[in-house]
Structures are given as C-alpha cells and as structure tokens.
Amino acid sequence: MPSSTNARPSANYSWFSFLLLVVFFIGFFPSLFNYLLFLPWTLVFPPSTPAPPSTPPSSSSPAEMSWSQKQFTLPPRSRGSYLVTDHVVDSLPEIRDYKVGLLNLFVQHTSCALSLNENWDDDVRADMSDALDRIAPESGPKGQELYRHSAEGPDDMPAHIKSALIGASVTIPIRDGKLAIGSRVTSQATGTWQGIWYLEFRAVRHTRRVVATIQGQKA
C-alpha cells in the first residue's frame, strides 16, 4: 500500500515535466512545432499548387535600333565659313527613314572644322572667320614667325589651332525624318536659325571627307 501511494506523485511529476517540455518547445520553435503538427495532414492531403496566371501576348514588339554609316565629301573651299546644311541633307537621304535618332558628322581632317551656328545672316560667318584669324594669326604684328610647325606654309599651324578650338564633329537630333534644327526652311523641326557650318582654315581650296553615322528608330 505505501509503495502505490509514493508512485502517484512520481507519475504526476513525469506528466508535468512532459508538459513543460512541450511548452518550452512551442515557445522556442513555433515553426517546427507547426510543421510537425500538420505533417500527417499534408501527407494524406497534399496541397495543390495554383497555376501561374497566364500573360497575354504583347501586341507590339519593342522598337529596334538601327545604324547607318556612310562617307561623303564637302564642296571644295578655301579659307572661310560655309553653310552646308542642304548639302548634308542631300547627301544623306537615309535621314528620311528614321522616326527618331541622332546624326553624327565627323570630318576626317585636322585643318578644318564642323559646327552649328546661325544660318540667317551671312555676316556671322564672315565675322567668325575674322575672329578666328585674330585668335590664331599667321604671324606676329611685325611679321615675325609665331610657330615652330610650318611644314605646309604659314597657315598650317593656325589651321590646326582653329580646328582644335571649333571641333571635328557635330551631333544633331533626327525627328520624323528631318534634322531637328532651326532653319529658314519651314520643313525643319525645331530651334532658332541653326545651320551646319563647314569651316575651312587653309588658304588653298581643299576637298574634305565627312563620315556620317545615324543611330535611331526607323519609321
């Protein structure tokens, strides 16, 4: 009789320890407890995976970028500043194929230049040439030599200086098959009195080569 009475507290203690262990397990590992609790159910009734929503086919394909490149020559000119917008457009009929893009013009010489500037008053081009001559004269006030490099004459080094100041290339936007520069011609898109200039810095007439590169989306 006494032995059975002493065994009851021991059994109660075991259940209490087990419950305490379960509470401890749930408190510190709730995700694992939840997984073990529902594991038999998921083995008998596996969950169904919903099908991903179908994406309707796109009605429009992305616009493809296109490139075009060619070389053309500028009309032979001696020293001066010249408006060549029409010549460029006539030499590049490919411009009409582009809805939007960029035209880069690069002159392949070191004694001339390309620029964008006013196209309305001819005096602007004459004044520009005179101003560049004052910046880089062929000789000093008393006729003295100013430069070491004169292999092709007294205008050789001044031409290189002017070319470095103005630059060998211009980039112009294309919009709806036209150059997006201002012009007296109403077919041009935007801007105010802009034109493409060819500046020749040598006294003797030269024929200059230009590489034209077009990048954009065709119409």
TrEMBL record:
It comes from the Eukaryota. Keywords: Membrane, Transmembrane, Transmembrane helix. Pfam families: YjbQ. InterPro entries: UPF0047_YjbQ-like, YjbQ-like_sf. Coiled coil: none annotated. Residues 50-74 are annotated as: Disordered. The chain crosses the membrane at residues 15-38. Belongs to the UPF0047 family. NCBIfam families: TIGR00149_YjbQ. This is Secondary thiamine-phosphate synthase enzyme. It comes from Pestalotiopsis fici (strain W106-1 / CGMCC3.15140).
